[in-house]
Amino acid sequence: MRLILLCYLLFTILPARAQRVLLIEKSGSARTTKLYTGSYIQYRLADDKQWFGDRIYDLRDDTQALVFADRYVNLADISMLRQGKPWARNFGAMLITFGVAWSGFAAIGTATDGDPTTGYRRSDALVTAISAGTGLLLPALFGTRRMRLGEGKNLRLRIVDISF
Fold first, then answer.
1. Which pTM does this prediction carry?
2. pLDDT digits over 58-117, tens only?
3. At a CB cut-off of 8 Å and minimum separation 6, what does 149 contact?
4. Residue 157 β-bridge partners
């Protein structure tokens, strides 16, 4: 009975993953970045200055096109990709949390201390302002990575069908 259950689970779970993959390849490197159906992608077309972003609805390997909810985009038409850097966003959120916590603990300590000589000082507000300001600027300055694609560039996009 266990063998039948194991075989059933293997045959139902294994083909559940998306079988087509969008590869971002760097020439001369075996390492690739893989994007699947449902991944969020930000791109810029070759003849447009506007950035577009949407979730990938389907990957067409026969025409090398991305399918979004409202349009098709050929891979040859994409000139740049933009990817977010999670470390900048996460570290910025930590700095903001630190600044708010510093100010909150200083205010609570002042209110519950009972000592009239201690209080919420300018240095407490300065630590809060500097850490929160740095936390807000960090994702704005270092939050995204832009990758140029196409002829003469060392990056290319390719859709590969990995079903067997």
1. 0.64
2. 998 889 999 999 989 998 888 888 888 889 889 999 999 999 999 999 889 888 887 877
3. 78, 79, 80, 81, 155, 156, 157
4. 24
Which residue shows structure tokens 């059933």? 8
Q: How far apart are CA 108 and CA 55, in angstroms?
A: 44
Task: Annotate 93-122 with b (16+ C-beta within 10 A) or e (fewer).
Answer: eebbebbeebbeebeeeeeeeeeeeeeeee
For residue 139, what are its two tokens? 């994702």
How far apart, in whole angstroms, are the C-alpha atoms of residue 148 and residue 158? 14
How open is the CA angle 96-109-97, to the nearest 5 degrees?
Answer: 10
Cβ-proximal residues to 88 (8 Å cutoff; 6+ apart), any chain: 138, 139, 141, 142, 143
25-59 core/surface letters (b: 16 or more CB in 10 A; e: else): beeeeeeeeebebeeebebbeeeeeeeeeeebeeb
- Quote the DSSP letter at residue 151: T
